[in-house]
Amino acid sequence: MGDEARRAPRRRHQRRRRPASWDVGCGLFGWYRQLVATTEPLQPARRIPEWIKVRVHEGEDYRQLKDLVRSRRLHTVCEEAHCPNIYDCWSRRTATFMILGDVCTRACRFCAVTSGRPTELDIGEPLRVAESIADLGLRHAVITSVDRDDLRDGGAEIFARTIRAVRRRSPGTSIEVLTPDFQGDLEAIRTVVEAGPDIFNHNTETVPRLYPSIRPKAVYENSLGLLRYVKQLAPQMVTKSGVMVGLGETRQELLDVFRNMRAHSIDVLTVGQYLRPSRKHAEVVRFYPPEEFRELKEAAQAMGFAHVESGPLVRSSYHADEQIPAGRSGLLAG
Fold it and tell me: Among 175, 198, 297, 330, who pairs with 310 as Cys (CB 3.0-4.6 Å)?
């Protein structure tokens, strides 16, 4: 919500009950909560539009998964980044496990994950993640991490150990990794690829013009080059990338990024709305209505992507098991 957002006046001591549905949103993953929806489109300084809405439901599966994460001392990007889809995903017994701690060495202006100097490197983490995935009986597991520029390999070896641990404990589970850019280190990328994930995901996030202000420690060419190198090492591996909209990009810039992705043999594309995690983060320049997401999906499909997910609440790991390209499911375990 923008700085000048208005709230309805309330009487002293008046209490309001939380409704069944809250309007929530996230940057790559951030929270917004607002009690009153509006149909006014493209007004980020006022209220979040009614199409940015999820239902809060803490069912039994949600509580069980939350208890499991606590008992195993694990991190999930669902919690650390305050993803609005957490209630849906956890109620479906799916989660995105975040390894390498919960402090990121970068400070991207869209992301709610804590940034700073990490002090944690838990070599027992891969086994605990694998045991949790086995306990949940997941058919498809997503493993991501914070950026760890403080480590020589950016955390690649821990990614590889986690993949191998999951394979041993859950041979019927397909594995998707959502990695940092490893600062363009080809050996680090090779380490992860040789561990054998089924899907290799790395998000491009935004258009190159906005990198200096939105993603200042990253390089656009590195993000695309990483996924092209994955294809060179393992042509059968599914590659995937995602972008946010609403940061000030133009439609033509988005289409250019889509074309760049296809030129780098990226198979799966996700497109979702950026929403501001806090006032410290980049402002929302524009809310895209659902029909524009449909138009972007059609344009991307025409470019040859094997699968495209495009919508206001789409995130790269949301319903990831449903984003396997048509005709490619045979590549995955189980």
Answer: 297
Angle ∠(68,83,316) on CA atoms, nearest 5? 100
Distance between CA atoms of 11 and 6, rounded to whole angstroms?
16
Do the beta carbons of residue 232 and residue 203 sit within 8 Å?
no
In which residue are the tokens 């993640």 written?
129
C-alpha–C-alpha distance, residues 269 and 297, integer Å: 9
288: phi > 0 → left, psi -120 to 50 → alpha, else beta; which?
Answer: beta
Contact call for residues 87 and 54 (beta carbons, < 8 A): yes
Averaged pLDDT, 232-237: 97
Type of residue numbered 317: S
Cα dihedral across residues 214, 217, 222, 227: positive or negative: negative
Q: Using CA atoms in the order 303, 304, 307, 310, what is the torsion angle rounded to 10 degrees?
A: 0
pLDDT digits (tens, 9 = 90+) for 102-142: 888 886 766 766 678 887 788 999 999 999 888 888 788 89
**Is 299 exposed, middle or buried, given 0-12, 13-18 or 19+ CB atoms closer than 10 A?**
middle
* Whole-structure pTM value: 0.78
Q: What is the mean pLDDT of the chain?
A: 78
Cα distances (Å, whole numbers) of residue 188 to 53, 157, 160, 181: 39, 8, 10, 9
Whether the CB-CB separation of 300 and 269 falls below 8 Å is answered with: yes
Dihedral angle, C-alpha 262, 268, 271, 274, nearest 10 °:
-100
